[in-house]
Specification:
By secondary structure, the chain is an alpha+beta fold. The chain is built from 15 helices and 15 strands. Helix 3 crosses helix 4.
Length: 353
């Protein structure tokens, strides 16, 4: 039995839909975006925060936050409600927003972690057999070496059989959003995991063919992607997974917010660094998020202004001059005038583990 009213109140529908990978734009008191349930050429999905509902004028899908997650993940009411339900301790556990303390680690059971790690290895092996996936990575400026280093993968068919052969629970795989029945949920998606202690504990799948939502996340709290890799006392904060991969390719200590909002847990995790460089997207949402983090982190933070005409770090990384240009941006952002980014003295310390 679920308290539907409490679930709706505790999980604002706009936040849940946005953090499920749907980009929403404000239109007065409504939010508008591309519907993830059909090929939506023009934004047909309308979200009504006032009454906690949504409706797609293209395919007719509509309902509350429970209905949305059920449709998105191909599950029934009970399973969708359980993803959002508030447990006795009062901690919401199954939304996509960062919830873990610290934000570097996603809380999953040991058995679920085994399923996630085995799945990521399966997809990582599949990556090298997919010309489509390798071509997509090349188009985003990400090298095979980084794909290997970050254990990127590609969703090819056969995950259920792979898990079954390994004696792993298909029920757990369904519960965390990797399978819908026997169907691979990440089929045809570029898989980007977060690694903790050398094991994958969370992942997101990026569509490579224009399907919505662009990103499909694991059903658990969203981490500060890449935080465990950072060994320096300063960090570059990016917005999306491919911005983070670009920074990794440049051997820079970086994390990704996985969106344009930061939780209190994220701010707490970033506060451990002596210097925080905010290299978020060059748009209104990115500027707003950078301003909020700048205010929350105080003097330890600085905003990295990207060159005019560049939309994000991955966009810059695809330019012939990208790395040198970003180095200059970092120098300008270093308001203390310390030689943090000197290529001769500081570069080894800047590298993430």
């Amino acid at each position: 039995m679920y308290d539907v009213i409490s679930i709706r109140r505790s999980n604002p529908i706009g936040e849940v839909i946005a953090t499920s990978g749907v980009e929403l734009q404000s239109r007065g008191r409504r939010l508008v975006g591309h519907c993830p349930f059909h090929r939506d050429g023009e934004p047909s999905l309308v979200v009504y925060p006032d009454n906690q509902s949504y409706f797609c004028f293209g395919c007719g899908a509509g309902g509350d936050v429970i209905d949305f997650l059920g449709r998105l993940h191909g599950v029934g009411f009970k399973e969708a409600a359980s993803m959002l339900a508030v447990p006795v301790a009062g901690q919401r556990v199954n939304t996509s927003r960062p919830q873990a303390e610290p934000a570097s680690a996603t809380v999953v059971s040991p058995k679920a972690a085994e399923v996630i790690d085995a799945s990521v290895w399966f997809w990582h092996d599949a990556l090298w057999r997919s010309g489509e996936a390798l071509a997509y990575l090349e188009s985003r400026g990400i090298s095979p070496a980084v794909a290997e280093r970050c254990r990127l993968g590609f969703g090819l068919a056969g995950l259920a059989d792979h898990l079954r052969r390994g004696g792993l629970s298909l029920g757990l795989a369904r519960g965390i959003g990797l399978l819908s029945g026997e169907r691979d949920v990440m089929l045809g998606r570029l898989v980007i995991p977060d690694l903790s202690g050398g094991r994958a504990t969370w992942l997101t799948g990026r569509s490579v063919d224009g399907r919505q939502p662009r990103y499909l996340n694991l059903r658990s709290g969203t981490p500060l992607l890449g935080l465990e890799r950072v060994r320096a006392n300063h960090v570059i904060v990016t917005e999306g997974p491919f911005d983070w991969l670009t920074a990794v390719q440049w051997d820079l200590p970086a994390v990704a917010l996985l969106g344009s909002q930061a939780s209190r847990a994220t701010v707490k995790s970033l506060a451990r660094f002596s210097r925080v460089y905010l290299a978020l997207d060059n748009d209104e949402a990115g500027h707003r998020a950078a301003g909020q983090l700048l205010q929350a982190l105080g003097g330890r933070a600085g905003i990295v202004g990207l060159p005019r005409g560049i939309k994000d770090l991955n966009d810059l990384g695809r330019q012939p001059y990208g790395r040198a240009a970003f180095w200059n941006c970092l120098q300008e952002a270093n308001t203390t005038k310390e030689k943090l980014w000197d290529t001769h003295d500081a570069a080894p310390a800047l590298r993430a583990a």
